[in-house]
Amino acid sequence: MPPTTFRIAIIGAGPGGLLCARILQRYGVPVTVWERDLGPVGPAPGGSLELRATGGRALRAAGLADAFRAASWPAGPETRLLAPTGEVLREEAAGPGAAERRGIGRRELRRLLLAALAPGTVRWGAYLRTLHPRGGGRHQAVFDDGRSAAFDLVIGADGTWSRVRPLLSDATPHHSGVSYAETALDDVDTRHPGAAELVGRGTLLALSGREGLLARREAGGRIGVYAALRGSQDWAREAGVSLADTEAVRAVLLARFTGWDERLRALLRDGDQPFADRPLFALPVPHTWPHTPGLTLLGDAAHLMTPFSGPGADLALYDGWELARHLAEAHTWQTDPDEAVRAYEAALFPRSAAAAGTAARDLAAAFAQDAPRPARRRLRRPHPHGR
Question: Which domains, from first to last, does the chain contain?
Answer without folding.
Answer: 3-73+104-173+283-366 (3.50.50.60), 175-281 (3.30.9.30)
